[in-house]
Amino acid sequence: MIEIKNTSKTYGTGENATAALKDVSLTVSDGVFIVLLGASGSGKSTLLHIASGLERPDSGSVNVDGTDIAALPDKELTAFRKEKVGFIFQQYFLLPNLNVDKNVKMGADLAGNGGYREIIEAVGLGDKLHKFPSQLSGGEQQRVSIARALAKNPKVLFLDEPTGALDEETGRQVLDYIGNLQKARGFSMVMVTHNANIAEIADTVVKMNSGKIVEMAGNEQRKTAYEIGW
Q1: Tens digits of per-residue pLDDT, 19-50?
Q2: The domain containing residue 196 runs over which residues?
Q3: CB-CB neighbours of 181 under 10 Å
Q4: How many domains does the chain have?
């Protein structure tokens, strides 16, 4: 469980200061799928980064299973990110000198996951194991980054606009696979999006505006990626 309590974050100083989060609290229970929904600049990505340990809040706490990760030394915080969480971003962050198989294996090695090629097959890249990122389309590169994150067998998976660079068909395929895997394995998932349709596939929708949570609502029934608008 992640308990975010009274967190604030400001970027810049003086006249250039921007309050990205303003006294935000949020609980991410084990096994839930939460979507952070809002326009650009609403604070949703900052909240995601703080919840995952990518950034520290200026004030407040981020308790993960009883440990305030915001107070951990840098070395321990890095170990937490390495061992407990997976990340999927709109940018791919692939290593250009490694092929598909080796890029995904990097994530798998962190968890001792010898069956990672099943994940590569599931995201539709089984025939491209030996291709390098420069030989792949943007959608294919995003699927590699998704497979790498899932190969870690994370306790919590954080996603920041993961389908932003994908066409509709590929986006639905990827979201469907991620959603099914989350249900089957029971890990928690927090996804940032500005697309209200995508929010319908989550358990809980957290709407943000101007650095604050303005509404929280549960979906009575999660839709599949093939049931939502695009």
Answers
A1: 999 999 999 999 999 999 999 999 999 999 99
A2: 29-58+73-218
A3: 16
A4: 1
Please report the DSSP string for 42-82 in residue order: SSHHHHHHHHHTSS--SEEEEEETTEEGGGS-HHHHHHHHH
Residue 230: inside a domain, yes or no? no
User: For the whole model, what pTM was predicted?
Assistant: 0.91
Distance in angstroms (rounded) separating the CA atoms of residues 225 and 69: 33
Q: How many CB atoms lie within 10 A of CB 66?
A: 7
| Main-chain phi, psi angles of 31, to 5 degrees | 80, 10
The domain that contains 167 carries what CATH number?
3.40.50.300
How do residues 176-229 score in pLDDT, each as one tens digit?
888 988 988 899 999 999 999 999 999 999 999 999 999 999 999 999 999 999
Q: Are 143 and 125 in contact (CB under 8 A)?
A: yes
